[in-house]
Amino acid sequence: MKKIKFKTKNILLILFIVVFLFSTTKIVLFLLDSNKNKNDTKELIQNVISIDIEEEKEVFKIDFEKLLSINSDTIGWIRFNQDKINNPIVHTKDNSYYLKRSFEKESNQAGTIFMDYRNESFNDRNVVLFGHSMLDDTMFGSLQDIFKNEFFDKKENNYIQIYNKDNELLTYQIFSYYIIEKEEYYITTSFKSDSDFNKFIDTITRRSYKKFDIEVSTSDNILTLSTCSGTGGTSKRKVVHAKRVENLE
To answer: Which one of the listed residues 44, 170, 228, 242 is annotated catalytic?
Structure first.
């Protein structure tokens, strides 16, 4: 009997050690991926972004030719939250390829910010962008800042900037943000009628944690940012909606 108890304890101890080593290895690999992704993005920014002075104004320019030579799936660039989000956007045939691949298409758990495969361009009625909620605030990790009371006190924090492949600046003003269980509705990209689109606008507007004095209509183009809310495996999503507006001076 004692031998059986001894064997059982040893088996449990071995299982504990195996689980511990497996979990520790996963955490270490995740942190290494996260750090590599951050460094690679910094290097990419240095190589493809320039700030020129035109008519006494700073003009942000992206070398899309160079970006496309690195990754032909490049569809644009996003800037938001005082450049905490400052990344290329890719677009491919599904919503899984870039979940664990870097911009250079290498295996990386931090992934890449990507456009929903059902979208065709930034002119769609609802353009959906996905990114991981990284603990170091990279990718869409810094979207957590939106849920702080003082976030919108700064005027620039109300706007998301997108550059398309033609280096055209598209500015979007936030009108809704919330946390919700994972669903397909808010990532709808096309609508059968204006009536359906109007119902969609009304639904996502009413969900917002903050009431914005912004009118959104069926003539608007919407940008939706989506990321996880919580630790790995969570079913909740942080969602941000913005409508395209005239570029700020």
So the answer is: 228
